[in-house]
Design a protein that fits this description.
There is one protein chain. The model has no long low-confidence stretch (mean pLDDT 86). By secondary structure, this protein is α/β, with parallel strands linked by helices. It folds into three domains: 175 residues, 2-Layer Sandwich (Nucleotidyltransferase, domain 5); 237 residues, no CATH class; 92 residues, no CATH class. It contains 22 helices and five strands.
Length: 535
Amino acid sequence: MIDIIGAQIRNSILTEVRKAKYFSVIADEVTDVANREQLSISVRYCLDFSVKEVFLDFVQVERITGKSIADAILQKFSSWELCLSDLRGQCYDGSSNMAGAKSGCKALVQEQAPMALYTHCAAHQLNLSIVAACKVQAFRNAESCIGEISRFFKFSPKRQQLFDKVVESINPLPKAKKLKDACRTRWVERIDSYIVFLELFPSVHMTLQAISSPGQFEDLGTNWNWDGETISKANGFLYQLESSPFLISFKILLEVLSSLRALTLKLQMQAIDVLYAYKEVKNTIKSLKEMRENSQREFNKIFTSANKLGQDVHGSSFRLTQPRINRRQVHRDNAQASSTEEYYRISYYNEFISHIISDLQDRFIENPLHGFGLLYLLPTECCSDNAEDSEDDVPGVLLQAVDFYQNDIPHALMFPTEYRMWVRMWKQKQSGDELPRKLIDVYKACDYLNFPNIHILLQLALTLPITSCESERSFSQLKLIKTSRRSTMIADRLSGLAIMKVNRNYCDKLCMAELVKSFMERHPRRIKLPFILSD
């Protein structure tokens, strides 16, 4: 019965996909609790002025090579009777088995579906940009120290018990009582663990001092009997926490990652469109550039808060200091500065932000997202004064997109005339009404009879995927379905339960009569009974 219900939900989704005509595939793989490789397959399509990203199935693959994954996707599409000629996009992570130019999954799928443009998941790209920036030694040391301290307490009930006592003695009603281990894959998500670490910083410092010098904290107890390794680690952590480079690096990480948190949450939104994502990345880069241009004012706040953080644990006499400047330095920056604040601003703050800006520009601006030319279909862009126009008033990047999709639109040769009519219509509305900024709102306002080419292009733009977050969300449900007690679950049962769990909103549309009839047809050897739901 589970298989029958899952198949009916899947058939309902596939009916919508065929009705929408154009669709994209989103896929990612994960290892389940039974140590099996599970490939999550989802589709994205636009139907009835609504963009949908819907999970379809988990497929167990023997290997995670590009060929194995591509074969699994193509075989599933064939069994679902989805036409590969209507496949317009594919979104995966940037690993070589998925994004390889010759033997990667995207290349092998494009051999069967040449119009299926590949998009590297934007959320992964943002994560990789932060990873590249955190390779700077000072920030790598800071984030490593925070992670080691959280695990230092997490994996020892004895240390955690002392830490709890210190937290209660400093603040009887704390917002957080335990340190959070930093996420090892999604770096932007580390902001939550950093905020908790900042709130508990005085407690962490006092606990490490109590372990290092128990005689000075008799009110916390004297029968702890710490071993030499624990005391040695505590002394090492104290040295890191009391150093000026750590305090500055930690505060800069907290400030910059907080400014990127909004972007990563928006990129993880369900059914986000490619043009909205591009504009959000562009606005974030602009904001980071403003932080760098106004570095003196912005960093002064960070420097002051880092100095205050040091004073909270050392006393009012604490002052941040800069490393010794040598004539020739190999292992760290050797910037010449007139003050400690200027040294850290040049060597740490400006360098960290410049790394992120450069990497974001390389990934999103210099190599724009597929469908970038369709950005000029937005009224806010085509009616702007600084729009790049060609000789026939149509932007060149938009003409390239029209040429790519010429077989999908009904009258490609008439597009320049249609585009000029489109611009004139929105310029007339510009004076009275506010122009729509979201692609889905523009699509709703586009009349197919007047603008058939633009209507199809807007649908294609909405069909293009931007992130693989839908597959990531299905992994969360996989952990709830296939647990250690149900690790021997067969693939068919997992597939049926997963599609019921992930797409539970489709359960309301199930037809009980069809379910009973399908169940009876699958078991012809059972006793024949009158169909109880028939008239």
